[in-house]
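Continuing from the previous page...

OK, I double-checked the sequence for DNA repair protein RecO against my notes and this is the correct one:
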Amino acid sequence: MLQKVEGIVLRSIDYGETNKILTIYSREIGKFGAVARGAKKPNSRLASVSQPFTYGYFLCFTGQGLGTIQQGEIIEIFRSITNDLISTAYASYIVELLDKSTDERKNNPFLFELLYQTLKYIDEGYEPQIIKNIFEIKMLPVLGLRPNFDCCAICGNQDGPFVFSIKEAGILCEHCLHHDPHHLKVNQATIRLLRLFFHFDLNRLGTINVKESTKKELETCISAYYEEYSGVYLKTKKFLQQLDKLQ
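Thanks. Re-ran it with the corrected sequence; updated C-alpha cells here:
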C-alpha cells in the first residue's frame, strides 16, 4: 500500500552498494523499516532524508516486511544535534531507547510527539541530561512500568521527607525505610523532579535550572530503576558515561 507518513529517522544503515535501510518512527503507523534505494549516492533525492534525526514526510510502500521509500520531503533538520558531539550522543541514546522499547507498526501519536519535542529541546540548547531524564521517565509506562512517585510505596503517606527505593519501585517515607535497607537517600528536590517529570506535559517545559548534585541523584535513581526493571540495554549509554567522565 502506498502511504504518506510523517516521521523521524531513528536509524540508517547501509544496504548493498547504494541503498540504505531506515528505521522510522511515524505519527501514523509507529515504527517501521523501509529501504531507501540509491540513498547512498550523493546526488540521490533520498540522500538528505535518509540521515538520522531527520524529520520529514515519507511516501512509501508499506507491507508485511520492509517498506520501500519512494519520495521524501524534509520538514526539519536538527542541525545543532548533528553538529555537536554531546547533543548527538544524547539524541542517539533517546532514539535507541525508543527503538528498543517499541514494537513495529504500533501506532502511538503520543510517543511521536514526545520524540519530536525531546529532540527539539536538545536542538534548542536545553540541558541534554535533564531532557534525557524526562524522556526516560515518560517512557516507563510504555515499558509497562509505573513507579510510585506520589506517596509512600508501602503505607501511602503523602507527607515527606522521602527516599527512593529500587526494591519497592518508588518513594518511601521515614516510617517505612526499614522495608529497604538499601534505599537511596536523595534530597527532596530530586523526589519532586521525579514526580514532576512523570506527570507534567513536556510541551509546557520552561527554563531548567537544576543543581549539579540533583542532576547526579536523578541520574542515579533513573539508571538504577531501569537496570532493575526495564530489561533494556543500550549501547549508547556506555558512550554517554564516557563523555560524562571527560567533562
